[in-house]
Design brief:
Elements lengths: L1 H26 L7 H20 L8 H21 L9 H31 L5 H20 L9 H20 L1 H5 L1
Helix pairs in contact: 1-2, 1-3, 1-4, 2-3, 3-4, 4-5, 4-6, 5-6
InterPro entries: CCB3/YggT (IPR003425)
Protein name: Putative integral membrane protein
Pfam families: CCB3_YggT
Length: 184
C-alpha cells in the first residue's frame, strides 16, 4: 500500500514539476536548442500539444501546461485517499488543495534549481550547457535580491536568501495547514 502511494505521489509530482519547468522556461525565454530544454518539451508534448491547440497561451504563460498541472494536483489528494482505502472523496476543497499543491510544487522546483545551480557552479564552472540554462532560470529571482543584498567579498548570498525564503514559506505552510501540508 505504501509503495503504491509513494509511486503515485512521486509520478504526479515529477510530471507536474516538468510542466512547471516548461512554463518557467517559456516565461524567461530559454534557449530551446538546449538538449535539456528539448527533453522537457518532448516529455510534456504528447499531452500539452493537443491541449495547447484548444487553450491559447496567456502571454508568456502556457495555459495548457498550467491547467494540466492544476488538474493533476487537484486529483492527487483524492487519488491518494482512494489508494489508502478511504474511498473517493470529491469536494470543492480539492480545488483549493490543487492550488496549494501547485504552489508547493513550484517552491520545490525553485529550490532544486537553486541547489543544482550552486552545485554546478562548483563542478563545471560555467562550461556546460546546463549551467547556462540554470543561470537563465534562476537569474530573474536572484537579480531582485542582489539589488538589496550586494555580494560581500566575492561571495554571492542571493541564492541562499532565495532558499531561506522558500524554507520560510514552507514552515508557514506547515503552521497554517499542519498535517495536510505533508500530504499535499
Amino acid at each position: 500500500m505504501l509503495t503504491l502511494i509513494f509511486l503515485t505521489k512521486t509520478v504526479i509530482d515529477l510530471y507536474v514539476m516538468l510542466l512547471l519547468l516548461r512554463i518557467w522556461m517559456r516565461w524567461v525565454n530559454i534557449d530551446f536548442y538546449n538538449p535539456f530544454t528539448q527533453s522537457v518539451a518532448k516529455l510534456t508534448q504528447p499531452i500539452i500539444g493537443p491541449l495547447g491547440k484548444i487553450l491559447p497561451s496567456l502571454g508568456p504563460i502556457e495555459s495548457a501546461s498550467l491547467l494540466f498541472a492544476f488538474l493533476l494536483m487537484t486529483i492527487k489528494y483524492p487519488l491518494l485517499l482512494l489508494i489508502q482505502g478511504g474511498g473517493l472523496v470529491l469536494s470543492p476543497y480539492n480545488f483549493l488543495f490543487g492550488v496549494i499543491s501547485l504552489f508547493k510544487a513550484a517552491g520545490h522546483l525553485i529550490f532544486w534549481v537553486m541547489i543544482i545551480r550552486a552545485l554546478m557552479s562548483w563542478i563545471s564552472q560555467g562550461r556546460s550547457p546546463m549551467d547556462y540554462l540554470l543561470y537563465q532560470l534562476s537569474d530573474p529571482l536572484i537579480t531582485k535580491i542582489r539589488r538589496v543584498v550586494p555580494s560581500m567579498g566575492g561571495i554571492d548570498f542571493s541564492p541562499m536568501i532565495v532558499i531561506l525564503l522558500l524554507y520560510l514559506i514552507n514552515y508557514l505552510g506547515m503552521d497554517l495547514l499542519g498535517e495536510l501540508w505533508f500530504v499535499l
